[in-house]
Records
---
Amino acid sequence: MRTHRIAVIPGDGIGPEVVREGVKVLEAAAVRAGMFRLEFDWLPWNCSYYRRHGRMMPADGIEQLRTYDGIYLGAVGDPSVPDHVSVWQLILPIRKAFQQYVNLRPAKLLAGLESPLRHKEARDLDFVIVRENTEGEYSDIGGRLHPGTPVEMAVQTSVFTRYGIERVARYALSLARRRRGHVAVATKSNGLAHTMPYWDEVIRSCRVEFPDVDVSFYHVDALSTLFVLRPETLDVVLATNLFGDILSDLGAAVVGGLGVAPAGNINPEKRFPSMFEPVHGSAPDIAGKGIANPIAAIWSGAMMLEHLGHPEPAAEVVRAIEQVLAEGRVWTRDLGGTASTEEVGDAVVRAL
Amino acid sequence: MRTHRIAVIPGDGIGPEVVREGVKVLEAAAVRAGMFRLEFDWLPWNCSYYRRHGRMMPADGIEQLRTYDGIYLGAVGDPSVPDHVSVWQLILPIRKAFQQYVNLRPAKLLAGLESPLRHKEARDLDFVIVRENTEGEYSDIGGRLHPGTPVEMAVQTSVFTRYGIERVARYALSLARRRRGHVAVATKSNGLAHTMPYWDEVIRSCRVEFPDVDVSFYHVDALSTLFVLRPETLDVVLATNLFGDILSDLGAAVVGGLGVAPAGNINPEKRFPSMFEPVHGSAPDIAGKGIANPIAAIWSGAMMLEHLGHPEPAAEVVRAIEQVLAEGRVWTRDLGGTASTEEVGDAVVRAL
Ligand SMILES: CC(C)[C@H](C(=O)O)[C@@H](O)C(=O)O
Ligand SMILES: CC(C)[C@H](C(=O)O)[C@@H](O)C(=O)O
């Protein structure tokens, strides 16, 4: 029986609370499937680690992670550490070092949940965001000029490579082929006149390999209105790092909120470990209260099972989540219920 | 009696159709008010001008515009000209040359309209976006490297100056003082670790001058979910050029769509003419059919009247729009009706 070694990084705030439920569900799913074993190593890399060591993870953190089959992350960020420090020393280096160039974020209205959109139902809300995850606007190139003077300024340079665009575009195009055959590309070629026309051009050059996939380009401002007004027209949304970040939160909002939005940071070639984490952050305001919704984390865990080669157990976890949601009794506060984080985790295990 | 000279740039697509109704309403409002005269000069600067002259406006276009009291624009863009050419030669140079550093975009659910958000009504949807309009991500600094090779790339540099941030921040903070006293700042200081922490820092340094205004910082991804899930918490939203572009379309979507979303590109010191234009684009797909909604253009015209020092006539135009919408008989197709562009303009004139 194959054993998958998973690095668990619970992180900060509600991260540890939701990850605990995720691990519980994944263990139950593995036992039930009886085809593989999961071994979890818990790594205490977070903002309190930073306060003690002056860094978010050990100097050889990336080397340690490299030996695992998967990384399961809660959330990172605490008011005591500037956000750009915590994420640029933990999440972002992991995404970049392991060439997790696809950030895959399904936006699907689960059975039992109501969309905040008045006229939309489950059949209107089933799309997926493919976010470029290693370059683009999230560059570390920039700085300040003339500090302390009236002409002080800060600059930052976005970098888009043919290499980086092609690989994520091909992923999105082949994903669309296995779905409803449509890719909506987020661009802003009118305003950002150097990088975005290039992004469009490289994607156009890839699409010829996928003549059966229908590709439309939308300026990101107009596309964001489609998320609200006509989400039923969306299938696969292909976006840059920054636009994908914004659009995936918006996608989460229209299908019930961040409490139920999962994500995978994927290296499709499986040369390096992929990382699975809810779209939500560490939510310091509700941390420690045991009321955070663990569904996003549990679903992210199911995406990890699928990536590890176990689509059936993954689908069963999602079915169990849907059953719990549809029964409507064990809902956390964000969904209008009163259940605790742990009660939701237990209910999903029972539904399995 | 004072005469205001207005440069009208109808532009492309539905631009001329909606601007015609706007001018009609503004003329009626001026006659009714009897306190000022409006003189309109029509400038044929658009994509067909480009096809004839190889440029979107004459070489001295900015100099010509400088002599006007206001600029009234329809929309620019046609499939025959790359978007980044048309806007970088017309709208964007006007915004920058005339230091129209505030792009003011109200998101308000008008009487008679229903929000696409299930549980939200008019009292939940009344906020305004203050978008920085002259710098930031919309820079012309960038280019390509190694074209034609596998390591080809495109780069683009965002520039944020203390000067540029302070002036728009002060505008937003004083606007909040005249509204409900709250500013939500869109940032992304965790991901864009050079420019966005600087943006936050300069805004923090301005807020001390406005101790009575409450300021919250949100990452733009999280903020976009508030637009859908808790818009009632928003009053003034302060955003960079790019984030303001996205958020204002999203704001338009939650209050009934781009057909009813106005904008002003404002030079608050009135040293230079300001420009008023609907948020929507040229919509080539419905151009020439006479079915575009002119409300956004008419309302933008009302914002121009207010800027020219006529708040009462401006408010009357908005009241007339609301009356027409509330009656529900003369609605264009985007709102679910069958009225033509012209019929809506006529109805607003009658309601005046
Ligand atoms: C046409 C385009 C460059 C413009 C912008 O991005 O500013 C438009 O979307 C707008 O919002 O006015
Ligand atoms: C924490 C932050 C840097 C991150 C991002 O912007 O990528 C988060 O918002 C996400 O979407 O995973």
---
Amino acid sequence: MAAYLPARIGQPVAEIDTPSLVIDLDAFERNLEALPRSIAGRDLRVRAHAKTHKCPEIAQRQIRAGAIGVCCQKVAEAEAMVEGGVGDVLVANQVVGASKLERLARLARRAKIGVCVDDAGNIEAIAAAAHAAGVTLDVYVEVDVGARRCGVAPGEPVAELARKLKASSSLRFAGLQAYQGAAQHIRSVEQRRAAIGKAAEAVRASRAALAASGIDCPIVTGAGSGSYLYELETGAWNEIQPGSYIFMDADYAKNEWAAPQHRFEHALFVLATVMSRAIPGHAVLDAGLKASSVDSGPPAVWRMPGVHCTRVSDEHAVLASDAGAAEPRLGQKLLLVPGHCDPTVNLHDWYVCVRGGMDQGAVEVLWPITARGAVY
Amino acid sequence: MAAYLPARIGQPVAEIDTPSLVIDLDAFERNLEALPRSIAGRDLRVRAHAKTHKCPEIAQRQIRAGAIGVCCQKVAEAEAMVEGGVGDVLVANQVVGASKLERLARLARRAKIGVCVDDAGNIEAIAAAAHAAGVTLDVYVEVDVGARRCGVAPGEPVAELARKLKASSSLRFAGLQAYQGAAQHIRSVEQRRAAIGKAAEAVRASRAALAASGIDCPIVTGAGSGSYLYELETGAWNEIQPGSYIFMDADYAKNEWAAPQHRFEHALFVLATVMSRAIPGHAVLDAGLKASSVDSGPPAVWRMPGVHCTRVSDEHAVLASDAGAAEPRLGQKLLLVPGHCDPTVNLHDWYVCVRGGMDQGAVEVLWPITARGAVY
């Protein structure tokens, strides 16, 4: 479907085809600038997470705003980023399997490439792939700092893998991957800060074990849009990996935010059309599960107080209006704020980028989502 | 990503890249044949639902197995089907907006095209588009038979729209779209049959109102994989629209089935690799929300008793093993049965089709999912 263009340059928002993924460029650019401003004067590198947007056009803008490069989760995403001109990419994830490692190593001929490990056997496979390709890869030991997904336990298990990395001629021990993913959507600031405080203890224990083995730890990387201000407070990280800050989503909007001046704006929307008003009391949109991911709840209806999304099925979303609220009319186009931006972006082939606000603005540019479906 | 091929012809299953969408061709072909067998000798047309598979290769096989054509939900899906050689396509949904209707009408120059309506103003817009394109469109009045999504109320509201259609020179009143989507996953046979019984009453009331206006109703179309045997029992439908029967999914597998000989087989899998075993007691797969839709629950682990998927995030699924059950090893490839096949298919670009079973078989062919992302 990538060949079908849902909009033309200069069109007003109301003429964009639906369901489309629309960026409010003004809000997006404010978010782009707000992140570096929120950490100004701190010794902290930004490695923007490209799994949110999957688009080199956006990665380039993050780098111009000060990011040192990007991270992503899959070799195929890294390939799309390097192809799009990004020179420094960390696959912030384990990569397992000979064909994937061969592709990863080949990519290191064209760009600075990093990868994470949490298994000694996997280190041997990565070293073999790097050796065969004649490259050196940056390798980060992933430490479980509370998310309970990937990563070895803090402390000596980290040092054990680092020693193995130090012994390899084709691998460079680059530091720790320490991402507390489970903390990002803890609603209260106090509890989120506490979770990151525990993660910082895990980082410190791991650094101590490395020091006991005489191993320097250049980089501690991690932190997401929901928590990075707390990682910053602890002083335990020197690189952060925020992704969602450029767009925000309905789930992040439910978080309590400590510093309102650092709260990012909704800049990503699904534009949808009311396609049925046959049943009294509800309106049906043409944007269902194939337009907006519901793993973090249904999308929110943008600036229509009292109008709620009550059901989402494959091709439809059903809206209900509170008493006295607006009743959307057949053919009307509405904006939805996706429940979760990353998997929603993964459903679309194009960003339709609007300048001048979502009410009066017009299409300025379309960006292809080149790493959509890049799961390999 | 469509250019990246996750498998090569002749490869064993264990060499297919992950996460990939894999069809067990033998099971798929048994499902293809089981459907017409289950309605043999009945005066019932099959219009297979292509929104499940989004692939003309599969549509052609359904037609060879006896289907009169396909239905789908979006104009862009209909375009992909016609482009793929399907000659009879019903958009079993409302189409709203001038540009979509223009595309729909243009398509009717190349194939027999139908569409649904539940609004008088929409009929005027469709008639104008058909007139402008110089075509005649089949139009079905959608009646709400209990799903409470789109469709007018049964009886006189149906006749009112049908009279309007009969008055248009560019539209042909083709019958009723009467799909009880909410019944498909009612677990008990008794309650599912009762819901379809109520839907049949709504169809009969609508036919009576049409008859009172002197309007013949050639086709009553509807019914899905979970309910079509009950629509058949009522005698109120003469066309069925099953889609999921070719693949089945974990959600359908939870239904109670009246006739075990008509129970379809799992033929669609997500092949995934164990990419982390660092945390004791669980295994992490490389297939998350971008590989398997979770709107109907997490995927099921295929033929590994006691191993369950406990969490799914963007790029990962976490498995836990019951005491005594197998502990998947790092690098091992496992098969998942998606919770919901339609939105899972929509995440992928290719079907990797395996012949000879999922244990010993090999890749026979890859089919492109040409209507993936065809939401417009």
